[in-house]
Every structure is written in C-alpha cells, then in structure tokens.
Amino acid sequence: MRKALIHLKKSDPVMRAIIDRVGPYRIEYGPAEFHSLGEAIIYQQLNGKAAATIFARFAALAGEPLTPEGILKLSDEQMRGVGLSKQKSSYLKDLAAKTASGVLNFTRLSDLDDEEVIEHLTQVKGIGVWTAQMFLMFSLRRTNVLPTGDFGVRMAMHRHYLDVRRVKKLKKGVAASNPRKRKIKLPTPAQMEKIAECWKPYRSVACWYLWRSLDIKTVGD
C-alpha cells in the first residue's frame, strides 16, 4: 500500500494533508463470499448498533456464516421475528435463491472487472450499485472504486475540495475558524470523477481516507 500512498500524496496536495492527518491505512476487509453480501443487505439503511443486533438474531437462526440453504429454510414469520422488514426478507431470499440456482456465482467474481461485478451482483433484488461497490472495495479488495452515490464520500469531497475557503487553508496547513452555517451543495458524480481523476488507480484508498477524515479533526477544521 506504500505505493498507493506515495501516488496519492504526490498527485494531490489536499489528499496529502488528509493522509498525514489521518495516519496509517487500516482498512478492514471481509471475505468475498455469500455471507458478506447477505450481511450487507441486513445492514442497509440501519445504524450500526441496530443492524448488528438484527444480524446476530438472524445468524442465530440461519447459521453463521450465512448460506443460501440456511436462509431458504426460514419462514417469512421467522425472518420478521428477528426484526427484518418484509422487503429485506425478500432481498435475502432472492440472494439465496439466485446463489443456490447458480445465477449468482461467487467463485467467478475475482475474474470479472469492476463493471462486470456490479452487473453480476445487481441481478439480486435489493443490491444496487452502491452495495456492489462496497463489495468490490471491502471484499474483492479492488483499489480503484469511486462510489459516487456514497454520502460520506460526497460530504468529504465538498468539505475538502469544494469549500474554497477551507481548501485554501488546507493546502497551506493552516487551521481555519469555523465558517458560518450555510447550505451545503454536495458534488455531482461528474464533479467527483474530475476531483478523483488524479487518484487513479487508487481511488478506493483515497475514499477510505475521505471517510476517516469525517471522523477526526483534520487540518482546516
């Protein structure tokens, strides 16, 4: 990963300041398998604590790691009983059914390029582009993913790249006073692609630093 950090710091002074402030790259990867995708569906649109509780209850019934057979044996009543909505239950059943039938094949994902992986995974109800991109980043360990629909990445890009006064301070390494509250206009996908152009082929790494930059006090705050 040293090569990625050298590239990002050399190509982008703003990212260099963020990396220096955040510190070492410590991404946590998960296995590129059925279990990870099932867990991702359960966690969608829930805060971490609530999702973890529901997942633990669900895994106690379905078995851990999750398998298509373990999910397909459950009734709708059992799935609702652990706190899953009717919609999420249907998503998990569709994931399990498509995997069991061979429509979804996890063993071949590593041989596909990023766009092909997204196309393959989004065959499942409830798996959109964002979920597929998270799987690419955190399970398949792809280094050049830019999730333009991710709120955290968009917010961090606005904060560090589009807020002109903050960007000027960040580049100089000077702490800025708190600006007056004003309406935030998050970047469009096209703006994000332009900002991230110089990060290639390590956009996933840069996005991890953007996420982390929202969790700590960075230069310019």
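the 2nd protein, sequnce then structure:
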Amino acid sequence: MNIKEIQDLIKFVAKSGVNEVEIEQKDFKIVIKSHSEPKEQIIVQAATPIAAASVAALPTAAPASVVPETPAEVELNYITVKSPMIGTFYRSAGPDKDAFVNVGDTIGKGNTVCIIEAMKLFNEIEAEVSGKIIKVLVDDATPVEYDQPLFLVDPS
C-alpha cells in the first residue's frame, strides 16, 4: 500500500463516521482510529515491501452511512444539515443567548441554525432547506468535521 492509498483511506474513514478500520495481510497491518476530536491515530507495521499485486487484493469497504437511532426515523425521509467546514460548533451567538434553533422549531431557507468558529472567525451557518428540526446531532461547543451531520430536518 503506498502513501496515497493510505491517505485516501484516512479521508474515507474521516468522512464516513467509522471509528476504526483495520486491514491486516501477511506483509503488513494498518489500523486507523478516528475519535470525536479532529485527530486520527495511524499505526502502520510492514514486515516487507508490498508488491503492487497485493494492493489489488485489499477488500474494499462499503461506504458507511449515518444510521438513525429509532425505527421511526428510518421510515421518515429526513434531510441532514451538514457542517460546511471544520471548526467548533455553537448553538447560540453567546453563552447568555438563546439557541438559534431547538428541536421542534420550524426553519426556512436562509435561517441561521448555528455558528461554526474556524480560526477565530465566527461563521453563521444558514439552512439550505425548510422544515422542522427533529434532532440536534452535535453538542454545543464541540469540534465538528467537514460534512459532519449537525441537524435532522423534516421537510414536510
């Protein structure tokens, strides 16, 4: 496995929401662990150089998806509002302010749903859909990754 393939695997793990991926063959073992923090731990052990033929033998992982927690959520077609950037997620404009949105609130396109702080800049995140907030998927003042689900919205 070359460095580009390892980097692609790391990106896949980060985007998919999978916590850990382990690939082991006779010549090497790679374990990629992802935590809620935007850090990844990579352990690579190779006994001998790997031939190009062994890369083709690697099993391909199916893309992981966010699985709703209850059967009712599976039946409904919710829209996921995702983070457009890496940063720190805030539900309100300040510690003494009300949250932009709460579960049960109705939002429209262009409504501010949260703030993401990135490099000391506070970016207001606007809804791209109209609907009712069903679930807040991220705790206040926690780090978020690019494309991480933030809210579930019922568009009906």
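The longest strand covers residues 28-34. Residues 9 and 32 are 9 Å apart (CA to CA).
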